[in-house]
């Protein structure tokens, strides 16, 4: 192996710019069984990848390009392909949401630690899946893969070029860059919480007592009420109580003060309340207004 040789290692290619031996000395040639550091490769191959010297740069490009294309095809196929063997599994997993991630980092060691920590965030409700990981800057191929598989790209100590950023914007792909692993993991966890269906808590906002009822043609029964606690809001839900028993639960259809539509009526004031799709309101009934507050989901 000599400086100037074209080579392919895994799916990456290069041209030997410099050879350095185990003592850190620059050498001009390396024979069999001689360990050397090679400078001039386009990416970081995996341990165990075969290192092959080829005749010229054209052949190196062709072999490298073919291998990279094959890797991308396999990644895309692994996301979308369904076989009879895994059909039932995929059907069973429809209830399990998946957060897909493409990872890029500056060095292999950081990449491995980052990827393992991210996948450990998986829960029974949400699975974190690293579709692809690699060292070096974020590439256009990463964006295409993310777009096809609905994944998020996370870069650790790497940044996308302007060209890649523009492509990501066009494809609607989210690219996030971090310097600290903890911050990246924290954001992944937040994204997972966002994927969980939110829960809701009921909050009683007011209570009104029915003092009179009126039948309005084409509208239905309107309850003449006095607000005895809190306030009645136009957009609230409503529960009709008769002798402490719930007879109907629905929504407020109309809320008026005299003849004017209002958004809310406070304690101590009288108002007219119409209940959507319910006309069996009687004097003495209690109308309980409530709203549903969204509660942030927690893992």
Write the layout of secondary structure elements.
Layout: E1 6-9, E2 12-20, E3 26-27, E4 37-41, E5 51-54, H1 57-80, H2 84-92, E6 97-105, H3 108-119, E7 126-135, H4 140-149, E8 152-156, H5 162-171, E9 175-178, H6 181-195, E10 199-216, E11 220-233, E12 237-242, E13 245-257, E14 260-261, E15 264-266, E16 270-275, E17 286-295
Parallel strand pairs: 6-7, 6-8, 8-9
Antiparallel strand pairs: 1-2, 1-5, 2-3, 2-4, 10-11, 10-17, 11-15, 11-16, 12-13, 12-17, 13-14, 13-16
Helix pairs in contact: 1-4, 4-5
Description:
The structure is a single chain. With 299 residues, the protein is an alpha+beta fold. It folds into 3 domains: 6-69, Elongation Factor Tu (Ef-tu), domain 3; 82-195, 3-Layer(aba) Sandwich (Rossmann fold), CATH 3.40.50.10050; 200-295, Beta Barrel (Elongation Factor Tu (Ef-tu), domain 3), CATH 2.40.30. 27% of the residues lie in helices and 41% in strands. The chain is built from 6 helices and 17 strands. The chain has helices spanning 57-80, 84-92, 108-119, 140-149, 162-171, 181-195, and strands at residues 6-9, 12-20, 26-27, 37-41, 51-54, 97-105, 126-135, 152-156, 175-178, 199-216, 220-233, 237-242, 245-257, 260-261, 264-266, 270-275, 286-295. The strands form 3 sheets. The protein has a 6-stranded antiparallel barrel. Strands 1, 2, 3, 4 and 5 form a 5-stranded antiparallel β-sheet that branches. A hairpin with a 5-residue loop joins strand 2 and strand 3. Helix 1 (57-80) runs parallel beside helix 4 (140-149) and helix 4 (140-149) packs parallel to helix 5. The longest helix has 24 residues, at 57-80.
């Amino acid at each position: 192996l000599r400086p100037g040789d074209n080579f392919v290692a895994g799916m990456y290619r290069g041209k030997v710019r410099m050879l350095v031996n185990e003592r850190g000395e620059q050498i001009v040639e390396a024979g069999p069984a001689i360990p050397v550091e090679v400078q001039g490769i386009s990416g970081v191959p995996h341990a165990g990848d075969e290192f092959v010297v080829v005749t010229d740069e054209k052949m190196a490009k062709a072999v490298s390009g073919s291998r990279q294309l094959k890797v991308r095809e396999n990644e895309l196929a692994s996301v979308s392909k369904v076989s009879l063997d895994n059909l039932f599994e995929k059907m069973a997993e429809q209830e399990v949401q998946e957060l897909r991630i493409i990872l890029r980092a500056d060095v292999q060691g950081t990449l491995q630690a980052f990827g393992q920590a991210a996948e450990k965030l998986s829960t029974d409700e949400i699975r974190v899946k690293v579709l692809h990981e690699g060292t070096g800057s974020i590439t256009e191929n990463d964006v295409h893969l993310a777009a096809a598989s609905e994944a998020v790209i996370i870069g650790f100590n790497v940044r996308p070029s302007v060209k890649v950023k523009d492509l990501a914007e066009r494809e609607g792909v989210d690219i996030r860059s971090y310097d600290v692993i903890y911050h990246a993991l924290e954001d992944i966890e937040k994204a997972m919480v966002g994927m969980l269906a939110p829960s809701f808590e009921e909050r009683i906002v007011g209570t009104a007592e029915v003092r009179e009822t009126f039948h309005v043609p084409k509208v239905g029964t309107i309850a003449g009420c006095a607000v005895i606690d809190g306030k009645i809001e136009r957009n609230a839900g409503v529960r009709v109580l008769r002798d402490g028993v719930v007879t109907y639960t629905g929504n407020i259809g109309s809320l008026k003060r005299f003849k004017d539509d209002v958004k809310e009526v406070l304690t101590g004031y009288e108002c007219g309340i119409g209940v959507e799709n319910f006309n069996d309101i009687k004097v003495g009934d209690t109308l309980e207004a409530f709203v549903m507050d969204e509660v942030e989901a927690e893992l």
